[in-house]
Design a protein that fits this description.
With 236 residues, the chain is α/β, with parallel strands linked by helices. β2 and β3 form a beta hairpin. The protein is elongated and about 60 Å long. The two termini are 28 Å apart. It is an enzyme of class 2 (transferase). Keywords: Cytoplasm, Methyltransferase, rRNA processing, S-adenosyl-L-methionine, Transferase. Specifically methylates the N3 position of the uracil ring of uridine 1498 (m3U1498) in 16S rRNA. Acts on the fully assembled 30S ribosomal subunit.
Length: 236
Amino acid sequence: MSETLNLNEKYEIDNEDTHHMINVMRFRVDDAFEMIDGTTTGFVCRITGIEGRKVAFLTEQVLDSNTESPVGTTIICPLLKGEKFEWMLQKSTELGAVRFIIYEADRSIVKLDDKKRGKRLARFQKVIREASEQSRRFSIPEIHFEGRLKNVDFSDYDSAFIAFEGYAGQKAVSFKNLGGVETGKKIAFIFGPEGGLTEDEVEADASFTPLSLGPRILRAETAPLYFLAAVSSLHE
């Protein structure tokens, strides 16, 4: 819900979520549900009335908001074939990513068509929102398109790690000595498409830190999950 809610007050909503609540989840008067307001505060709410698609409810309890990762990780990613990209967005959201930036890699197979860009970004944002709700996150990550990798501004990050298959099994920064990843830091993780990154892309920004994801080559959609899980294991 975009507006700010207050405890022990009554409100009404009428949107696609209420349709899902009434017709799919079969909520009825006096049933409880959870809602996040425009300030990312979570509430336990109780339904006080249903009229058509309109749901009236009372906010009864403020939820514990300690569900976010202590490290703010932005995933910088190309589009992937088939359903892989949406699956990656969903799982990365569940694992704590705070933002997604799409770029078009030199070897990208899937392109973000200008005419369909708005519609596809809206679809991706919906996938992220639903994953946030499912995993009880109070903050919904945003997704943006920045064109080429060189267009992304990395000055706002404390560290920017880039995964490159050329580093698999070779000497590069590993998760055993990621001293730059500390609680409260803002970091970026960049990975390439199915065809991999070019050396020019790997060297596109002087701030990039090469990162080894272990001795095995991971699929493109697996790489960010490996990274996020490792960050989570270090800090949560």
